[in-house]
Amino acid sequence: MKILVINGPNLNMLGIREPAHYGRETYGDLVKKIETYCQSKGIECECYQSNHEGCLVDKIQQAYGSFDGIVINPGAYTHTSIALLDAVKSVSIPTVEVHISKVEEREDFRQVSYIRLACVKTITGQGTDGYLQAIDFLVNN
Ligand code: DQA
Q1: What atom in ligand 1 is closest to the CA of residue 8?
Q2: CA of 100 to the centre of ligand 1 (A)
Q3: For residue range 28-86, what is the model confidence (pLDDT) as tens digits?
């Protein structure tokens, strides 16, 4: 089992940005947490972060044929990007959408998720544990 974990814009600022929404763990802490979890379960994983929509599309396309599952937190591109939706649809790899914060309790503009239309599951409001729950879901389904 090989899982690609993708984080979109501003998630490299974890630990610094809006801790009331996103907590105090840094992006480095998150990567370590995911890698340790995957190692303990015998899962291969790769973590990738970019602030650029096209780079995220490229990464999803490159996953075709080499990953069994994708965990993605597209950040603000969740609410705007049809390109990311189409990329996930293109590769047909089971994909779980993760949000650290409880997006459903936030602003109206955060209530739209394009990528959700191509995802097998959405996890919100679980902090960074949501990424581990997403990995579990991909492993067990
Ligand atoms: C987020 C929620 C998005 O609305 C926001 O733009 C982010 C982070 C989350 O993890 O809760 O960058 O995806």
Answers
A1: 12
A2: 7
A3: 999 999 999 999 999 999 999 999 999 999 999 999 999 999 999 999 999 999 999 99
C-alpha dist (Å) from residue 109 to 22, 55, 96, 115, 138: 18, 24, 21, 14, 28
Q: What is the largest CA-CA distance in the chain?
A: 40
Q: Which residues on adjacent β-strands are paired with residue 6?
A: 48, 72
CATH code, 76: 3.40.50.9100
Q: In what order do the strands lie in the sheet with 95-99?
A: 44-49, 2-7, 69-73, 95-99, 121-124
1-26 pLDDT tens trace: 999 999 999 999 999 999 999 999 99
* 22 counts as catalytic: yes
User: Is 64 one of the catalytic residues?
Assistant: no
Q: Which of 77, 99, 114, 131 is catalytic?
A: 99
Count of structural domains, the chain: 1
Q: Which domain holds residue 67?
A: 2-140
* Ligand 1 centroid, distance to 46 Cα (angstroms): 20
